[in-house]
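User: I need a structural model of Phosphoribosyltransferase from Mycobacterium adipatum for a docking pre-check later this week. Nothing fancy, just the predicted structure tokens so I can convert them on my end. Input:
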Amino acid sequence: MLDLILPLECGGCGAPSTRWCPTCAAELVARAAEPRLVTPRVNPGVPVFSLGRYAAARRQAIVAVKEHGRADLVGPLAGALYTGLARLLGWGLLDAPLTLVPAPTRRMAARRRGGDPVTRLALAATAQLPAVTVVAALRLSGFTRDSVGLSSADRQRNLAGRVRLSTPVRGPVVLVDDVVTTGATACESVRALQTAGAEVHAVLALADA
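Assistant: Understood. Predicted structure tokens for Phosphoribosyltransferase:
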């Protein structure tokens, strides 16, 4: 009866009567060589790591959390982010203590989504990593357009000088984002952090497009 009133479906493939099916869960699990190093078109000047391609179940889950309020999918995505962080720390590519700084989001988008999903994911992912803290230190100032459909150059112009530091950050920092596309957001975010004296060691994304 509940399924008739509030249809339940997998956030990755749409399978009925489950929030997150085993097949999609397996797809989200990081492979042995992940996170992998990627090269976005706009170079932020620090290594950029991605947990997988922005496709299939990974893409659907990210969109479901961001655009459709599927808070139940924060857990699976946060689990993937946790694995990525743990591996980078275990491989010696990052050192603790470490601060995660979520990439900034437009205020209008954050209000529509009931908060910033990247910050929510980062907080959930670091709950079992006591040496890693999360500081939502970046904000967008002025008017910025939604980046969907913009070219690489247009994304750069859209964000140029508009990423600001709202909270001081000290020590090693990793910028975390849901999706790296052109790298424009990462570039401006790293610039803002470094200008304020932060030591940005890497960018880590749930997916790259």
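Before docking, keep this in mind: The two ends are 39 Å apart (CA to CA).
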